[in-house]
Amino acid sequence: MAYPLEKYRNIGIAAHIDAGKTTITERILFYTGISYKIGEVHEGEAVMDWMEQEQERGITITSAATTCFWKDYQVNIIDTPGHIDFTIEVERSLRVLDGVVAVFSGVEGVQPQSETVWRQANRYKVPRIIFVNKLDRIGADYLRVVKDINKRLHANALPMQLQVGLSENFNGVIDLLTRKMATFGGDMGEKVEWQDVPAEYVDQVEEMRNYVVEVACDFNEVLADKFLNEEEISIDEVKSALRKGVIGLKITPVFCGSAFKNKGVQLMLDAVIDYLPSPLDVPPVEGILVDTDEKITIHPDPKAAFHALVFKIMTDPFVGML
């Protein structure tokens, strides 16, 4: 089935080593029906870590691409290495991506390779959302990590969710816009169930939600007028305004969960659809015709002549050496 361009998302998943990038990708493949079984990195069974060295070491060495489908959208994903020795793979990937999910550990927060990846994404002006992972770990603190991201990366990180429970008691995620708490049932967290916000979180949720709406008003004058006049603002209006801010590199929405414990990944996928750009939202690319050295501007148009940028080559034992 062919999708219109606005239904595509070309994204990368990037982070410091061991923040959980590949674990997240494996959950995405499972929840979108691409794989029937979750491959675990520590068992050497991750689909995206196909090289023998990757399986032995439990790390990503070379970027790997895959495609999945979520809510009538086609999502093309590049899982990138987190080790600094392979950072050139991240650089190549960012050159062709429309958006990035930046993953941070809920325990360690911003780490050296996190900063490197963030600078690389800034250089290529790639819009981002953030996923704070590993909230089931002892010492994990979601809001502390958000503050750390803002302080060290100047990311204008905007929390869109709130964790429920700390460390081993982490059992759900509150969506600020809907004022509902999501829990994840089933053997692999595949059943997302919604319920009311626990009473002890209500005041904090309202305060954080009001701030999200205020930020959204910065990107839509109609919303700002509604806010000042205390008129009702719909969730779709808030999302649309925030998406404009994300694509304009003004804000970075933050989501949370624990990929290994199968919590929060589906909501992060929803955020990829809601906030990251389609190919139509990306600025035109300038190129040079080889024969004439003429500069041309390439717009995202499926009816135009085919253009491509090769960002990766690989050998195939069944095809031969390149």
Kindly list the characteristics that best describe this protein.
single chain; 322 residues; alpha/beta; Rossmann fold; 7-stranded mixed β-sheet; 4-stranded antiparallel β-sheet; 9 helices; 13 strands; 30% helix
Using only CA atoms, what is the Rg? 20 Å
Structural class: alpha/beta
Low-pLDDT parts are 49-62
Distance between the termini: 32 Å
Do you know the CATH topology?
Rossmann fold
User: What is the N-to-C order of secondary-structure elements (H for helix, E for strand)?
Assistant: EHHEEHEHEHEEEEEHHHEHEE
> Which of globular, elongated, flat, extended, rod-shaped describes the shape?
globular
Kindly provide the name of the CATH class. Alpha Beta
Number of domains: 1
| H/I helix tally | 9
CATH-level-2 architecture: 3-Layer(aba) Sandwich
**Record field, number of beta strands:** 13
Strand content: 15-25%
Overall average pLDDT: 86
The share of residues in helices is 25-40%
Strand ordering within the main sheet: 2-3-1-4-5-11-6
| Largest sheet: number of strands, sense, barrel closure | 7 strands, mixed
Q: Quick one: CATH superfamily?
A: P-loop containing nucleotide triphosphate hydrolases
Could you describe the 3D structure shown?
- By secondary structure, the chain is of the alpha/beta class.
- It has one domain: Rossmann fold (3-Layer(aba) Sandwich), CATH 3.40.50.
- It contains 9 helices and 13 strands.
- The protein has helices spanning 21-31, 52-57, 87-94, 112-123, 142-153, 202-217, 221-228, 235-247, 265-275; strands spanning 8-15, 64-70, 73-79, 99-105, 128-133, 157-159, 161-164, 172-175, 180-185, 191-196, 252-256, 285-288, 295-298.
- The strands form 3 sheets. The chain has a 7-stranded mixed beta sheet, with helices on both faces. It has a 4-stranded antiparallel beta sheet with strand order 7-8-9-10, with no helix packed on it. Strands 12-13 form a two-stranded antiparallel ribbon.
- A hairpin with a 2-residue loop joins strand 2 and strand 3.
- Helix 6 crosses helix 7.
- The radius of gyration is 20 Å and the shape is globular.
- The model is unreliable at 49-62 (pLDDT under 50).
